[in-house]
Each structure stands twice: as C-alpha cells, then as structure tokens.
C-alpha cells in the first residue's frame, strides 16, 4: 500500500499544484473520493475548507488532509487509468505546451503517467537522465529502431550541466519533438508509447492473438490474450472492449508444452487449481515466448516478487540511491578530506611559518654565530697576538731575568767576596776596638793616678793653708816644710809633666786607634751601602752604641760621665774620712 500511495501522490501533486485551493480544493477532494472509491466525509471536507485563516491554502495545509481522509482509505479497487485521467485533466490545460507536437494528447497523457511511474520520490517531481534513457530505449525498441547512444550522451551532457532532470511537461516536449524518433511516423510512435504504457503502467507483461479451446463446446476460438503479473485476460479483440474471461495465476499454476493434435500446432497447457486451459500459438516462436513469459510470471508469484519492470525500476532506484549515498559519502569524505586537507594545509602553513621562523631564527642565530665566531676569531687573533707579545715579553723577561739572575749570581758572588772582606774589616774593627779598650783602660789608670796626685796636691795645698795660719814659728817651720813640699811639688810637677807626656802619647795612640776605628767604620759604612745597594741580602753586625765622650782640658776623657761621678763620690768619701 505504501508504493500505491506514492504513485497516487505523484498524480495528485500535479493536480494540486495546478489548482487554486481556495476555489478548487473541494472539487479536487470530491473527484478523488469518487475515482478512488473512497466514502465522502462532508464534515471533514467542510472543516478543512472553511473560509478562515486555518484553511488549507498551502501544501502544508492540504497534504495532511489528503493523507488522512483520502489516501489512507484507498483499498485498491479503483481504475488507475481513470484516476490518472482525472488528475491529467486538472493539470494538462495549464502546463501542456501550446507548440505543436508529433504525438497526440492521448499519447501525451500516457507519457505523463509513465513520468509519474519513473520519476523520483521527491518534490517537485523530476525524471533523472538514467530513467529518461530507459524510457527512450523502451520506446525505440517498441518502434523497431536502433538506439542512438551517442546522440543521447550529448543530450545528457547538456542536461547535466543545467539541471538534475526533466519535469513531466519537458519530457512530453522531448518525446513530442521527435528528437529521438526521426524517420518514424506518428502512428508508429503512438503504438510504441502505447506498448510501453501497457507494460509499465497497466502491468501488461505480454499480449497477442492466440487460439483457445473452449471448456464446454471444445471448439477453438481466436482471442486477444493479455498477460499481467497475476492474471491472463482474454478478449474478443485487441480493443479490449469485450472481455471473455480471466485465467487467475498463482504459485500453484504451471505451463506445459503439448504435442500437436487434432490438426492444431504449437500447443501448450496452463494448469490451475480448478481449471486447465489449452492454447495454440501462431508459431513455435510465439509459443515459446508465451510459455517463458507465463512461467516467469508464476515464478515471480511463488517468490513474492513484483513484476520485472517494477523490480527493475526499484533496482535502478536503489542503485541510484546507493550511488547517491556513495556520492554523498564520497562528498562527505571529500569534505572531511578537504577539511582535513585544509587543517593539514593550515598545520603545514603553521609548520611552514614555524619552519620559516625557525629558519629565520636559525639564520639569525647562524648570523650571530658567524658574527660571534668572527668576533671570537678576531678576539682569538688579538689574544693570540697578545699572547705572542706576552710570550715575547716573557721570553724577553726570561732572558732579562736570566741576565739578571746571572747578574744576581754575580752580585751574590761579589757579596760573598764583600762578606769575606767585611768579616776581615769587622775583625780589624774588633781588633781596633780591643786596642781602643786597652788604651781606654790605660787612660783610666793614668786618670786615676792623676786624680790621686791631684787629691794629694789638694791635701798638700790645704795643709799649706793651715800652715800659713800657724804661728810664725810654725810659719817658718811650715815655710821650711813648704819649701820641702814645694820641692816635692816640683818633683810632683815633673812627675805630672811626665804623666802629661805619657797621656799625650796615649792620646796620640788613641787618635791613631780612633783613626783606625773611623777607617774601619767608613769601610763598614761603605760595605753597608754596598749591601743596601745590593738588595740587603746580608745584614751587618754593628758594634753597640756608645755614650758621648767627656771632654777635658787635655782632650777627650778616657772615662764616662757616670764613671767620673762615681770617682767624685769616692774622692769625697776619702776626703771626709781624712778630715
């Protein structure tokens, strides 16, 4: 019922699109109910076509009503040709071309019905190039002409560039133009269209005149047989006006060839559950064609398959749907691939930009590296030159140091020689000091003796003064004593002079020793300067510092001030003791 509903919808769609729904919707619905043998529902009809805003003024408004109240109630007990003719009548006047055609209006009607059968199940209805080719081939074969594939390929290419397919009216114009039936008269084209119409629309699998044996009279009568998917009808003539009977076919039927008998040839037998029919074909070829056609029909009934042309149409649709699905899948995959490719291109572009950036960075880094390398080479060259200069300077310094070392070693040898000479000079100075000490001790001894003599002279002088104060007698006595003391004094003076001479000699010896000491000191000082000049490698041992010498009337004293103070205290002590 689903396939039947789709076929009905296509014809109704043509009628629906050609009418003004506000004025003719009721007429279309009423006519559909009449030709489809569907009970009228005036209430629903008036409800859907009332004059307000909720009325079915569009496809969305009328189609739900059509499906619910008309098509859902169709039982199949109607005349398809009458139904299609009613829809054709409503739409042909508005859409059929006014230009003259090589086909009649009846042929145009049949082409229109064939279009509805072969068109795609989507709206607006079109017939695709594959179905156009199929229909034109069928018509060409029915005319007995040869198929011009190259001509159709050119037409198909021109068609595909502009649209997906043809409408019903464009298909009628194409067939009526005679583009693919050149050389054929109108009657031949009309017969071909009628044959294709019978096969595709009326499900006529085969038709023709044959002889049939009667069941009662057993006589043979010529009848026009029409084979359909589940029935064989036979008529008095091919105008189909006087129907004589039907042979109901099912899966239990069979067809068998019979031998010639009773003067009848090309016999075959159709066995059904309740009856058996003997038929005679005009020749063996017709006999074989009819047997094969009937057997094929029975096999299809057993398998529950549709008629060959419907099955072929379904297969073509499935193939187109499959190809379309594959094409859509391919397009989807192509889009995915394109998207992936675009993503890849973007990624590649990103990678390329990254690579370019990396290359730029690498080039910059390489440039910096080369610049750094050049700078390092320059610096290295400078460092190398500097190192060479430093090395040369170091070599010069080493040579200089070697020379200085030689000089230093020479100076060390000279200093060692000077040290030996200094030791000798120190020995001489030590000897001179020893001699000075000896002379000093001699001077001290002489000074002590001189001091004793002076003390004695002072004692004598005091005694003289005491004697002067004595009496005259004593004075004379003292004068005598004085004279004696003067004599003694003269002797002491002579001794003092002698001591003075000895002191002068000691002083001269002291001066000589002093000169020797000064000479030794000068030698020591010169050696000190030399040693200091030669980096102070040797530290001289010098005699200790001496207290300043006292100066007397006769020259430098042979004793110190402390020693003189000690002697004065000794003299005072002795004087106090003597008093």
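-> sequence recovered:
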């Amino acid at each position: 019922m689903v396939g039947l509903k789709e076929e009905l919808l296509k014809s109704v769609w043509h009628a629906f699109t050609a009418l003004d729904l506000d004025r003719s919707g009721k007429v279309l619905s009423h006519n559909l109910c009449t030709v489809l043998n569907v009970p009228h529902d005036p209430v629903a009809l008036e409800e859907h076509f009332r004059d307000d805003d909720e009325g079915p003024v569009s496809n969305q408004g009328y189609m739900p009503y059509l499906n619910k109240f008309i098509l859902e109630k169709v039982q199949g007990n109607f005349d398809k040709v009458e139904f299609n003719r009613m829809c054709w009548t409503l739409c042909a006047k508005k859409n059929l071309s006014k230009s003259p055609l090589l086909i009649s209006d009846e042929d145009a009607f049949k082409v229109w019905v064939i279009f509805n059968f072969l068109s795609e199940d989507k709206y607006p209805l079109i017939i695709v190039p594959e179905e156009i080719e199929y229909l034109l081939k069928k018509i060409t074969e029915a005319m007995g002409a040869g198929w011009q594939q190259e001509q159709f390929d050119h037409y198909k290419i021109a068609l595909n560039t502009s649209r997906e397919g043809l409408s019903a009216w464009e298909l009628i114009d194409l067939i009526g133009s005679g583009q693919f039936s050149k050389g054929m008269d109108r009657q031949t084209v009309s017969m071909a269209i009628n044959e294709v119409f019978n096969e595709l629309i009326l499900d006529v699998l085969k038709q023709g005149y044959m002889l049939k044996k009667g069941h009662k009279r057993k006589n043979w009568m010529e009848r026009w047989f029409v084979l359909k998917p589940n029935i064989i009808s036979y008529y008095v003539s091919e105008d189909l006006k006087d129907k004589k009977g039907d042979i109901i076919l099912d899966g239990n039927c069979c067809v068998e060839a019979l031998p010639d008998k009773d003067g009848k040839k090309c016999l075959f037998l159709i066995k059904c559950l309740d009856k058996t029919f003997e038929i005679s074909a005009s020749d063996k070829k017709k006999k074989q064609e009819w047997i094969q056609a009937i057997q094929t029909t029975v096999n299809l009934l057993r398998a529950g398959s549709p008629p060959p042309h419907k099955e072929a149409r379904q297969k073509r649709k499935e193939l187109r749907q499959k190809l379309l699905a594959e094409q859509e899948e391919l397009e989807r995959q192509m889009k995915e691939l394109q998207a992936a490719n675009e993503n890849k291109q973007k990624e590649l572009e990103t990678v390329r930009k990254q690579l370019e950036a990396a290359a730029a960075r690498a080039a910059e880094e390489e440039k910096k590296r080369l610049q750094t390398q050049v700078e390092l080479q320059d610096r290295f060259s400078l460092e190398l030159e500097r190192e060479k200069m430093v090395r040369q300077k170091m070599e010069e310094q080493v040579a200089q140091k070697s020379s200085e070392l030689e000089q230093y070693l020479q100076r060390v040898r000279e200093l060692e020689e000077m040290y030996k000479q200094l030791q000798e000079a120190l020995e001489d100075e030590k000897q001179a000091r020893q001699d000075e000490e000896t002379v000093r001790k001699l001077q001290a001894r002489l000074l002590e003796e001189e001091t004793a003599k002076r003390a004695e002279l002072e004692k004598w002088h005091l005694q003289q003064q005491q004697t002067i104060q004595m009496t005259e007698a004593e004075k004379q006595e003292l004068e005598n004593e004085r004279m004696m003391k003067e004599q003694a004094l003269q002797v002491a003076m002579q001794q003092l002079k002698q001591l003075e001479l000895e002191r002068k000699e000691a002083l001269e010896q002291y001066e000589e020793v002093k000169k020797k000491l000064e000479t030794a000191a000068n030698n020591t000082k010169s050696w000190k300067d030399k040693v200091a000049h030669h980096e102070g490698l040797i530290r001289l041992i010098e005699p200790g510092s001496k207290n300043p010498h006292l100066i007397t009337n006769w020259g430098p004293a042979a004793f110190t001030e402390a020693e003189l103070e000690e002697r004065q205290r000794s003299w005072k002590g002795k004087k106090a003791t003597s008093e």
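The CA atoms of residues 390 and 492 lie 88 Å apart.
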